[in-house]
């Protein structure tokens, strides 16, 4: 699944023409689902109206061909409920809810936050644990508690800690999904029992990642690692500056959109471009 970037015009407004091109690219390139308005989509700097409009637009353009998952997390529980309601009204298939950022809730706070959202909006919901961005870590025992809530159906686990797969799987129902949010360790995550991933790299190499994940899900570790080896530099170097700065630059160089990004993020620095370019070309993509 791709954590889709949000293309923008020079005035920082959303470029819906480019967004439509990206949707078509992913539908045709083997992407299994699109995550619109995740953190890679700059959800933190789009207002409520823009956020809902992007989700609705992607749902409309996908037109049922693959699932659309809407990022609807916030550090305010009431705001997260509002965004999740918008996503349901827009026709999203599920929502992805990043843990509250900056305010650093306790484990009980994380549990009650997600419980309240799940009870308020009847739509499948995926937890998203990324302590490097939120400054709080949703521990396996909290995930296990939340998995008992009917419409909380899985987690995007972005710590890169592979042992969490076994910890969580041993105590949740078989239909609770575990997705990695760490491209560099995705193969190991899936081979350890994970079900897939929500990927930044998939903005650039969707077909390759589909094939890698399919091999890993089939238990073919040799093939999965062989296919993933040329992408390891990409997985690393597209985080050389804060996400989504590098990946937006790459997608612009692929011809899908301009380079615009919304403040406080800034375009990729000149000194970083050769490193990112080399990683992209090592992955087999010419820009």
Roughly what fraction of the amino acids lie in strands? Answer: 5-15%
Question: How large is the count of helical segments?
Answer: 13
Distance between the ends: 23 Å
Structural class: alpha/beta
Fraction of residues in helix? 40-55%
Order of helices and strands: EHEHEHEHEHHEHEHEHHHHH
Looking at how many chains there are and whether they match, the oligomeric state comes to single chain
Task: Give the beta-strand count.
Answer: 8
Q: What is the CATH architecture assignment?
A: Alpha-Beta Barrel
The CATH topology corresponds to: TIM Barrel
Could you say how many structural domains there are in total? 1
Per CATH, the class reads Alpha Beta
What strand line-up does the widest sheet have?
1-2-3-4-5-6-7-8
The biggest beta sheet reads: 8 strands, parallel
Low-confidence stretches: none
Shape: globular
Mean pLDDT across all amino acids: 97
CATH superfamily: Aldolase class I
Rg over alpha carbons: 18 Å
Task: Give a description of the structure.
The structure is a single chain. With 287 residues, the protein is α/β, with parallel strands linked by helices. The protein has one domain: Alpha-Beta Barrel (TIM Barrel). Helix content is 44%, strand content 11%. It contains 13 helices and eight strands. It has helices at 16-28, 48-62, 77-90, 107-120, 131-134, 140-147, 163-169, 186-191, 206-217, 221-228, 232-237, 245-253, 273-282, and strands at residues 2-3, 34-36, 68-71, 94-98, 125-129, 152-157, 177-180, 196-197. It has an eight-stranded parallel sheet with strand order 1-2-3-4-5-6-7-8. Strand 6, helix 7 (163-169) and strand 7 form a beta-alpha-beta unit. The radius of gyration is 18 Å and the shape is globular. The two termini are 23 Å apart. The model has no long low-confidence stretch (mean pLDDT 97).
